[in-house]
Structure formats: structure tokens, C-alpha cells
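Record 1 of the preview.
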Amino acid sequence: MTGPVVGIVGGGQLARMLAEAATPLGIHVRVLAAPSDEGASEVVPDVVVADPDDADALRAFARSVDVVTFDHENVDHDLLRELEGDGVVLRPSVATLEHSDKAHQRRRFSAAGIPVPDFLVLPGGSDVDADAAAAFAARHRDSGATSGDVVVKASRGGYDGRGVWILGEEQLRQFVDSWSGAPLVIEPLLRLRSELAVLVARRPSGEVVTWPVLETIQVDGMCNEVLLPAPIGEALRARAHAIGVQVAEEVEACGVVAVELFVVGAEADGAEQILVNEIAPRVHNSGHLTIEANATSQFEQHLRAILDWPLGPTDGASAAAMANVVGNGSDEPRSRQAEALAAVPGAHLHLYGKSPRAERKVGHVTVLAADVAAARRGAALVADVLAGGGTPIEEAATSTEGRS
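->
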């Protein structure tokens, strides 16, 4: 092999889409996939099957590639530090990956002046302080600025709404008293105007680029739709970009980092604020539409960044929408592709080769259109058809809404 060899730890859909972006660039991808991983092995011929927490397997894998990157952050950080000490090139670094811990992230961002919600970190194990949690909740209830409930997050391991609980004061005390897991982060339940995402790419030599600001639509804590462009004013857009770049610099990102943002407060009286919800130090669900909607996708950009190649332009479509395809436990979306494409022939389908368990993301759909509303209708329709619902094919065929 004459091109660079990129090793990806984890064999899910992010590794799959990174590999798809690598092929035209002449980059060879090797994946370290756990036996239970689904997605990457269908399209990547060079897969090593082993548990990423197996020290010997990870060391051997790291020695066989030029740079190591990640499909997910759930890898033993102490083991990764050993590899860094041995000269293995990890991009992102362990110091960046540590920001996937919500408690660490909140403390670091607050100290750096990056806007975050008010928060309380409670230690894990048997040292959780229910009185401190109750006092925090009462203080926010009495302020009248929030709903009175709180959001409790496990600092590690949560995703797609898992590891997150919305609780009233009495429920909070009972929950904390019975908790024995990772440290907890407690925040007030904010009255959100919207949620945004800013994708930022940064390479070791310091070059930084951002994509246009996106709006994300959550359902039960899981990202359901992503809209381009976000329907916000220029001042808010500039602030979101600035925060995204500040975060990327603070965590010393190498590759793509996704910065998820809350917008709170009233636009009319100028009291609106942007707060960082959380970050993902890797390619992310909110950036999937960049494959079709932007000149350089998040996946190609991540590869460029970790190899310290020049970063690509991020301009793109005037309007686009992405909808996730969520499994319902029975319907196989790949059996419904023809029906989905009949509904919206211009839709871009991405199915991940994952078994369609309930509440599991098994694919996504992107539609480009003249305006966001049309793109959103088209993407939602196709995703629903793939998931086993949606408009009957004869009705969909007579509709042009959302076609690109």
C-alpha cells in the first residue's frame, strides 16, 4: 500500500461512512471491530475482529496503521495513554476524548468561559449527596427561570437519550439515593427555543473550518432530524460559529468535533443566549447531511484533518434536511428501498447494515430542495417508509413535495 493507512477503532456506521469517504482519496482504512459491531464490515474488507478493550489486540492494531481514530469514545483511556506514550498517533488525542465525560466537559468549559447551563456534579458510587441535589433543584425552582424539574445525566456512557433523566424534586432525591454508578451531572430543565449544532474541523497545524449552523430536532432525547440552514438571525449564527471554534480550540480537537447548542431566552428583547449542551469529539449524527449538502462532507474532512492535509470548503446546498431511520424491531428497511425511492426519487438513502432493533438508528435519509420545509417533508416521508410506515406508494408517487 502506497497511501496512508487509517485505523478506526469501532465498527459501526461512523466507521462505515469514513471508509466510504476514504476510497476516492486513496486512503486505506483498517477497522478494529468488536464481535457485536454492525455496519462497517459490509463495506470495509480490512476488518480486525477483537474487543477494543483487549490491550494486546489494540496495541497490535495500532502498530499496523499510520494514525488511529475512533468510531466511538468508549475505549479504555488509560490504555490509550499508554499507546500515546509509545508513540502511537491518536487523532483525536486522549486529552480530547476525555471531554466525552460530561462532568469533565462541564468543568473545563465553565473554567474557560464557554457558556454552559448552571450545573452540579455529584461524585459516583456511594458518595452521591442527595441533599446537595435537592438544594440545587430548589434554587432553580425558586428563581422562576426554569420549569422546576432538573435534568440528570450520567457523566459517561449515555447516548440517544439513554443515561438522561428528567426528574422533579422528590423523584430526584429518590433517584440520587439509589444511584451507585458514574458521577452525575445535574442541570435545570431549560425552556429551549431551539437546538443547534456546529461542526468544526481542526488539523494539527492549526487550520480550522466550520460548516453552516444546523438545527437539530430531538425526539425522546434522540436526534430525529437535522435542518440546513438553521432558521436563526445572523448575530446568533455568528455567535454559534464563534462558540464552536472556541470549543475546538479548548479541547485541542484533531479531526471533526460536533458542538451541540441550546438556544434559550426571547429573541424579541435581545435576551437570547447560546449554551453548550454537549460535544462529540468525532464525526456525528448531526453532520450526516454534509455528505450530499456540502462541498466537503464531515467524513472526508475528518480524514483530511487527522492526516494533516489541507481542509476542504464547506459551502453547499441552499436547503437540506436529514431524517434518521429508526428501527421498530421487525421491519427490515432494506426490503423497502424501492418503495422509499418511489416516494421521493431524489432522496439520498444511507442504510447501515444494522439489525432493526426498536429505537435503534439503522440509517438516515437526506433530501435537498429549494427550501427547508420541502426538504424536511421529503426526508421524513422516506425515513417513515423505510421504517415500515409512511404514505402508501400510490399516494406518494402522485406527490412532488420534498423532491429534489
